[in-house]
């Protein structure tokens, strides 16, 4: 780890400056207004069908389900997907998220269930983790109702409840890990979570890593941006060494036994991501606990490159397909 530094001082910025950069308006009641305007349907050929289903009406969360237009005869793996955005931005309806889930569903093939979870700072962590568990339990409930009235018809006809995966990108990769840990404490019968897919998981910490300092001015996620999002997402009064941001810290000895019970994991990392050092160490920690980890590392790529480069996106789809079908 490199020595600590304060990016706000380096860039001579205040949090108000960052609000302006991200076009975020903080309201008098503490809530925020975020930029909108993303289309909610794909601009690619219709390879899948999709529909929205309410999850928790109190929390106004919902699920967007995808299935291939022409699914194969065998039952399909089920992927519960969590989008990125630092727990502050984005939505299951954003074009980049929607198109990624649609393409994963068509390419793998798989049933993909994308969660619209609550965002910070109106709903700080662990709200998003709670919503992730709600999504897992919803799939569990569908498994309990399979072949009877009330079960979602797509899951009933096409879903393999014995092959459920959790997947997330960036903040969604962080959510995948924490929801996966919580799921180990639940009775999920008859479904079985057999794997976690953490794509460029968002991880933080007070002490700066070498990669963070090398890429302090990163064009995708400079330290000012990641610090800003963690300050919104973490519980009030917490720093970036909180267990939600920094699982590399040994927060609770008792958690070691829980980590050992995690299913196989795939961690995708990009070499030009400022969080690459943390992601590598995170993979090491999981392996040291006996978790089977598949690492996919792409040295010439930046954080979130798949949203802008179709060839990199295709590699992501291929990685997911190989992991869930082999």
Automatic annotation (TrEMBL):
GO molecular function annotations of the record: hydrolase activity
UniProt organism field: Artemisia annua
Membership in a protein family: Belongs to the 'GDXG' lipolytic enzyme family.
Keyword tags: Hydrolase
Pfam families: Abhydrolase_3
InterPro entries given in the database record: AB_hydrolase_3, AB_hydrolase_fold, Carboxylest/Gibb_receptor
Domain Alpha/beta hydrolase fold-3: start-end pairs: 79-305
The name this protein goes by in its record: Alpha/beta-Hydrolases superfamily protein
Keyword match Hydrolase: yes
